[in-house]
Every structure is written in structure tokens, then in C-alpha cells.
Amino acid sequence: MGIMINLDVMMAKRKMGLTELSDRVGVTLANLSILKNNRARAVRFSTLDAICKALDCQPGDILEYVEDPKER
Q1: Domain assignment of residue 66, yes or no
Q2: How many CB atoms are closer than 10 A to CB 57?
Q3: Of 1, 4, 44, 57, whose CB has the highest number of CB atoms within 10 Å?
Q4: Geometric angle at alpha carbon 21, from 18 and 23, rounded to 5°
């Protein structure tokens, strides 16, 4: 997949754990874990908005496009 989710990087920069982020965002630990481990197939804009507010960051700090050499 070409989109990488760098949630773990932003959480580390903000020194915030998954439980604290879950409480602030209102998303279950399981769903945040899926995002954090880059296994998500989709993310709602409302969830992305809440994560960006909680981590004081931009969507581009969390989402990154990486070209897959297999798709060339």
C-alpha cells in the first residue's frame, strides 16, 4: 500500500501513549492500534481530525505517501 501511517512517530514525539490518545480522541484502543501498526484500510476524516487535535499536528505529519516499487 502506498499510504503509510506514522501515528507511532507522532505519539513518540508528543510522549503520549495509546491509552491517553484513545481517551482524548474517543477511539477504541483496538482501532488506534490498527492505525498505529499501519494495518488500517481506511480512516475517517473525523478520526483524523481528532487525532490531529490531540497530537497538535497536521494530517501530513501522520499520513505519508510511499511509492510501492511492485506497482510500477
Answers
A1: no
A2: 17
A3: 57
A4: 110
What does the block give as the cell for 40? Answer: 488500517
Residue 7 belongs to some domain of the structure:
yes
Q: Tell me if 27 sits within 8 A of 47, measured CB to CB.
A: yes
Report how far residue 58's alpha carbon sits from residue 72's, in angstroms, rounded to the nearest whole number: 29
**Residue 12 belongs to what domain range?**
3-59
Model pLDDT for residues 16-49, shown as the tens digit of each residue: 999 999 999 999 999 999 999 999 999 999 999 9
Report the SS3 class of residue 43: coil
Residue 71 lies in a domain: no
Determine, yes or no, domain membership for 64.
no
* DSSP 8-state symbol, 41: S
* Residue that has been written with the C-alpha cell 508528543 in this structure: 14
Q: What is d(CA 61, CA 63) in angstroms, rounded to the nearest whole number?
A: 6
